[in-house]
Write a structure and sequence with these properties.
Blueprint lengths: L1 H10 L5 H6 L5 H7 L5 H10 L11 E9 L4 E9 L12 E5 L8 H5 L2 H11 L6 E5 L14 H16 L9 E6 L1 H12 L6 E5 L21 E2 L2 E2 L1 H7 L5 H7 L5 E6 L6 H13 L6 E6 L5 H16 L7
Helix pairs in contact: 1-4, 4-6
Length: 322
């Protein structure tokens, strides 16, 4: 079966997939430890599709929904992944919120990372507990409180309560985790630091946590959230970035375990900026922060290939459905 999957993965453009076969891959955790990062998402999807593991043809579901938001004066659109067995169960499930990056939508994670297939496979293998996954949309992309749209505040005050009232979602801190890629990683970092009482773990992937400011080719320099009089404003950027929140976070006495990663050839030099953020956390919580640098750039080969690692890391801190 592994050889058959390897051939199919080649057809889909995966590179070096035979390495995974030679390295005695037996379960999904082995894929994350042994396979090249750029082929993980392809192989995980193959495992789910071709029933390498029991229950691979899981009856999960992805629904489109929208939370009303008075703060935004519009709806907060999102997709939600419901695991196999959700409709038959009366249990409350932990929830993972995954934020998209610049020009993303509520569909970015589902399509770019084959998220439904990856989640099905990880749950079926026992590498993570069954959970709900919410992928919301921010039309401004950067998950910050802008001049006319307080997206970060609306995420906490409107979206979370809606999800927890409309779905069987665990409402305690131990039942929530948050992650995101690029600008969504920026958002995940800043939300977790400002609201550590709400999240059991966080996983910013290739997070755009530039300090002291973004590179000239970053979309942040043109995003109106960070402009003053039509020009990018360094002080406004800093006021909405992690450097303005980490002091209060450290004084809160609440620790959010962080999994941070980045590609070594990230076109925006996020390997450096993520390392600066990691070091600030490591000095505060040395045993509860992880930093991974892999071979890759700033794209869904990176995020789709590493989201399983991130989900496995966060799983140890969230409670099971009950």
């Amino acid at each position: 079966m592994l050889a058959f999957i390897a051939k199919l993965a080649f057809m889909f453009g995966a590179k070096h997939i035979t390495l995974c076969v030679r390295l005695n891959v037996k379960k999904l955790r082995d894929i994350n430890m042994l396979c090249p990062n750029t082929v993980k998402s392809s192989l995980l999807a193959m495992l789910a599709l071709f029933a390498l593991i029991p229950s691979a043809f899981a009856d999960s579901e992805v629904r489109l929904d929208a939370a009303p938001s008075e703060l935004l004066d519009r709806e907060f659109v999102f997709n939600i992944y419901l695991p196999d067995g959700y409709t038959e169960s009366d249990a409350d499930y932990p929830v993972l919120y995954l934020l998209h990056g610049n020009r993303g939508t509520e569909n970015s994670w589902m399509r770019g990372a084959d998220l439904q297939a990856q989640a099905d496979a990880l749950i079926a293998s026992g590498d993570i507990k069954p959970l709900l996954i919410v992928t919301p949309a921010d039309p401004r992309y950067w998950w910050a409180d802008g001049y006319d749209e307080p997206v970060l505040t609306a995420f906490v005050e409107d979206l979370l309560p809606y999800v927890e009232s409309q779905y069987r979602a665990e409402t305690s801190r131990a039942g929530r985790a948050i992650g995101g890629y690029s600008a969504g990683g920026f958002g995940a970092v800043n939300i977790a630091l400002q609201y550590p009482q709400l999240f059991a773990a966080a996983a910013p992937l290739s997070p755009a946590v530039y300090t002291p400011q973004p590179p000239a080719d970053s979309s942040a320099t043109e995003q109106d959230t960070f402009l003053v009089d039509g020009e990018f404003d360094r002080d406004r950027w800093a006021s909405l970035n992690w450097v303005s929140f980490i002091g209060d976070y450290q004084r809160s006495g609440i620790i959010v375990p962080f999994y941070i990663n980045t590609g070594d050839h990230d076109r925006f030099d996020i390997a450096y900026h993520a390392a600066v953020f990691y070091q600030a956390l490591r000095e505060h919580q040395p045993e509860l922060v992880e930093f991974r640098v892999f071979g890759g750039d700033h794209d869904f080969d990176a995020w789709g290939g590493s989201i399983a690692d991130a989900m496995i890391y966060m799983d140890q801190f969230i409670m099971p459905a009950e």
